[in-house]
Design goal:
This protein is α/β, with parallel strands linked by helices and about 300 residues long. It contains 10 helices and 9 strands. The chain folds into 2 domains: about 35 residues; about 230 residues, Glycoside hydrolase/deacetylase (TIM Barrel).
Length: about 300
């Protein structure tokens, strides 16, 4: 009996089996340790690193900020040239540009149903810009590109998709501008969306106006800053030009909108013509619809192309 027990203990096969089981235990222990490490690292990344990353940009379909209005803004007060003065007894010309279109298809249709020669200014890469442009074209309504440009408040305030930024090289700026221009059909001209910073930089405005000149497009300066250099740029490049005189709805209040419309009529009567900008606010539409007969009695509502001209 003693000899058999010793033989069993010295059996090589038994030793191999024990070593195999020991290796399995080590492998399993290593696997579980690795699994715990992976889970721990994942937890750390999720709660301590990824959580601190900046938020994702808003989807393009969301309505962007309309405008950043200049403080202490006043009408330009520029007297048009004698060639543009109205004959005695005729009504002064007024161009009413509806900015920031492209995100509210229904409101755009409501303006198309009004019997008035508004000018539609559409944001590039907006959800309904092409369908609105096509509908406006069928109705004989003039369309423009509402060109996003960098404001002083950037990046806290974004001009939206297709924006021209002061950090862009000339090639980048011209490339983006051409993409914006190509995005909206039937356009006759351009006006700036925001742009209080960029419109005050002459070299970049020269680049913008050189492209507009080649394409035969006019430019209306929204005048979002008193430092704007759009007019001398248009003069140098011989681009047809006009500038905004009055923001109608920078305060979203019906009484204020009515007051601004009366101010527009007075300004147009004094200088023979005027350019007004409105935005797709429901309050603005209600007041415009209500006051449209009164407007037509006092001014001749025309497209923006009727007001622009080369600056001598």
């Amino acid at each position: 009996m003693v000899k058999k027990k010793k033989l069993k203990q010295n059996n090589p096969g038994s030793k191999k089996a024990g070593a195999y089981k020991s290796n399995i235990r080590k492998v399993l222990a290593g696997f579980f340790i690795l699994l715990i490490l992976v889970v721990g690292v994942g937890f750390f990344l999720n709660y301590y690193i990824l959580k601190k990353q900046p938020e994702k940009k808003e989807p393009v379909s969301k309505q962007p900020v309309f405008e950043v209005y200049p403080k202490g803004d006043k009408p330009s007060g520029k007297i048009p040239s004698k060639a543009k003065k109205q004959p005695a007894g005729s009504l002064p010309k007024v161009a009413i540009i509806i900015d920031d279109l492209g995100y509210d298809n229904d409101l755009a249709k409501k303006y198309l149903e009004l019997d008035a020669a508004f000018t539609f200014s559409l944001l590039p890469f907006s959800p309904f810009q092409k369908s609105i442009a096509q509908a406006a074209y069928k109705k004989g309504i003039e369309t423009m590109l509402h060109l996003p440009m960098e404001p002083d408040e950037y990046p806290d305030v974004s001009p939206g998709p297709g924006a021209l930024l002061t950090s862009m090289s000339p090639d980048q700026l011209i490339s983006q501008l051409n993409k914006d221009l190509d995005d909206i059909p039937f356009i006759k001209g351009v006006n700036n969306h925001m742009g209080s910073k960029m419109t005050a930089i002459d070299t970049q405005m020269y680049q913008v106006f050189s492209v507009l000149k080649k394409r035969g497009l006019y430019f209306v300066d929204s005048r979002t800053t008193a430092k704007t250099l759009c007019k001398p740029s248009a003069r140098l490049l011989k681009v047809s030009f006009a500038e905004r005189d009055i923001f109608i709805d920078h305060i979203q209040d019906s009484a204020h909108i009515r007051e601004q419309i009366n101010k527009l009529i007075k300004h147009a009567g004094k200088y023979g013509e005027a350019v007004a900008i409105i935005h797709p606010y429901p309050e603005t539409y209600q007041v415009i619809r209500e006051m449209l007969p009164y407007l037509k009695k006092n001014v001749n509502i025309v497209s923006a192309s009727t007001i622009v001209s080369e600056i001598s």
